[in-house]
Structure formats: C-alpha cells, structure tokens
Specification:
Blueprint lengths: L1 H4 L11 H22 L3 E5 L17 E5 H7 L7
Antiparallel strand pairs: 1-2
Length: about 80
C-alpha cells in the first residue's frame, strides 16, 4: 500500500481506517488481477487527488478507484470527476 502511494502525504480519517485499509487492499488485489487479465497496467487512484491544486481529497475507502495506468498518468493531480 504505502509503496504504491509513493511520496504523497496521506490524509486519513481515523474512525474509518479499518474500512479504508480493507478497501485499499482489495483495490490493489483487483489492480493485480486486471494487470494479469488485460496485459496492461492498472493503478489504484484517488478520485479526488490528495494534493490537487483546486481540491484536496482524503485517503478514504470511497475516494479510491482502479483505472488504467495511462489514464491515471495523463490526469496528473487533476480531479476529472468534479
């Protein structure tokens, strides 16, 4: 988990930590399965970036998505869902 988030500062919510940890582990498992099944890379991404210019999201279970790596790398720290 931590190695995939790299150098970003995590913005956690303590009372939701157990669910967030579970969903994060499941998302990384799904990412690995999609890598294997599709033959291209997937990333676990924060829907609302943790350190965006206009918004800053939280590292919580409902701010995670599994998307193709090319999409994640192209969006940078932008929030495409607002």
């Amino acid at each position: 988990l931590q190695s995939n988030i790299r150098h970003q500062r995590l913005r956690n919510i303590p009372w939701d930590e157990e669910l967030t940890n579970f969903v994060t582990e499941e998302a990384h498992h799904l990412r690995g399965m999609r890598d294997s099944l599709t033959g291209f890379k997937w990333h676990v991404d924060h829907v609302v970036p943790l350190n965006g210019k206009l918004v800053s999201g939280l590292h919580v279970w409902n701010n995670l998505e599994v998307i193709p790596a090319t999409v994640n790398l192209s969006k940078g720290n932008k929030c495409l869902h607002l």
